Amino acid sequence: MLNIDHIRENSESIRAMLHNRNYPEDALDSFMRVDLAWRTLVEEGNQLRRQRNQVAEQIPKLKDEEKKERIKEMKAVANRISEIDAKLAELELERNEFVLVIPNVPHESVPIGAGSGDNLLVRQMGEICQFDFKPKDHIQIGEDLDIIDFKRGAKVAGSGFYVLKGDGARLERALISFMLDLHRHQGYTEVFPPIVVNRAAVIGTGQYPKMKDDMYWCERDDLWLNPTAEVPVTNLLQDEILERDQLPISYTAYLPSFRREAGRSAEMKGIIRVHEFNKVELVKFVHPDNSYAELEHLLVDAEDVIRCLGLPYRILLLCTGDMGFASSKTYDIEVFAPGSDQWLECSSCSCFTDFQARRARIKFRPEPHLKSEFVHTLNGSGVALPRTMVAILENYQNPDGTVTIPDIIQPYMQGQELID
RNA sequence: GCCGAGGUAGCUAAGCCCGGAUUACGGCGCCGGCCUUGAGAGCCGGUGGUGCCCUGCACCGCGGGAGUUCGAAUCUCCCCCUCGGCGCCA
């Protein structure tokens, strides 16, 4: 969430920002209205408390008559205070609702645009493979090699779930290990957090309330299946105050991610958009002065995964209309899938400035004697497994229907070179 | 799930039984001042959040919430978390 003071004092620039991001402006108007009412009432409540505190202090020293009188008066004051408190609680709740749905302010380098058509191509890397046969898509390859089983995935969990089998399952595991090892060498600490998270966590990273219908929810315990490892990993440091020399903190995590993808079932062919998928995640907690430089590092670290795998890819800088709610700047990495002739988003690297840190109360002390400030958080997928799998199967397929295993993965599969 | 012990400021830790003057005792760390050639020691002050008519004033703050009361860190109830023991279990 944004700083409330900042919203109060810069409402017009916030309004322009909402416009650029295709967000309605009514949340802002409502905020300003409720906030004013709240502040007025806080002042009134404080006056009454002051009166009560002063009188309560005098009461033991008074004589019977006057004492009775004062106590009677204070009863009335106490009633009025609880009325005000109740009203304040309502207003705070209301105000919070509005603040929590105002998105982060984009960095000045972010292009203004309406949607994905206005994203900026930053660079394109790797050769796009020319086949002298008609390349198959990953669904066909997966079925022909008997390594992806959609039917049985649907049987045990439902449509949008799939089973990896044999070399498919081994490839998945190999890719995860490779990614984690790579990131560890880049300086990230590997963590394996809980897969389910509580409500504070999904509020902390910004999925709740805006995306709540896209998450799986265990009602009895009010627990949520994480939609991305960003949630448990970022919230590891919830409510903590770090020392300056602890920053930057870099974590990498392998974790399954769950998304209900409500209302998107038509698109769900193959494993490009599924309800449960594996992902290796990168999360950084950094000093506010370094956040955009750190974003560039994070992007390169994620990009390394695709580069090492020898896949063609491109980097996009997302425009205001296409970025995520909590992000101030986002790069997408898209990998090319020749079988279906499309670019697939396999990683999204974002800087969140203090937007998540404020929600999750993650702070640091700039100097031992100074007041704590919010850290900046960043996150990137490094990378999503299913789409990487699609790109490998489609780019590395051979005329005879086999798939060559990328060089860098072979050691992770006991030297195996081919899936056949 | 059961029993017990806890949760107080950046850390540490009094107060709780017995409600009202301890500014929420004290210590550590850190900052400022005095002193010193400099440092240390010593002494003095400061060291959470919010609101406003922002060199100041007020309010809040003792795990969270509700209640009793003129007044709650302190009494009552509910909940959460941590630690220890028992139980159950892959």
General description of the model:
The chain is of the alpha+beta class. It folds into 2 domains: 4-100, Serine-tRNA synthetase, tRNA binding domain (Helix Hairpins), CATH 1.10.287; 116-419, BirA Bifunctional Protein, domain 2 (2-Layer Sandwich), CATH 3.30.930.10. Helix content is 39%, strand content 21%. The radius of gyration is 27 Å and the shape is elongated. The structure holds one RNA strand of 90 nucleotides.
N- and C-termini, Cα separation? 51 Å
Second CATH tier, the architecture of the largest domain = 2-Layer Sandwich
- What percent of residues are in strands? 15-25%
Helix content: 25-40%
- Please tell me the total number of domains: 2
Mean pLDDT: 89
Q: How much is the radius of gyration in Å?
A: 27 Å
Break the fold down into its secondary structure elements and pairings.
Elements lengths: L3 H6 L1 H10 L5 H33 L5 H37 L19 E6 L12 H7 L3 E2 H7 L6 E2 L2 H19 L3 E3 L4 E3 H6 L12 E2 L4 E3 L4 H5 L6 E3 L5 E10 L17 E11 L4 H18 L4 E5 L11 E9 L4 E10 L3 H6 L2 E3 L7 E2 L1 E9 H11 L7 E2 L13 E2 L1
Parallel strand pairs: 4-9, 8-14
Antiparallel strand pairs: 1-11, 2-3, 5-7, 6-7, 9-10, 10-16, 11-12, 12-13, 13-16, 14-15, 17-18
Helix pairs in contact: 3-4
The chain binds one RNA strand of 90 nucleotides through α3 and α4.
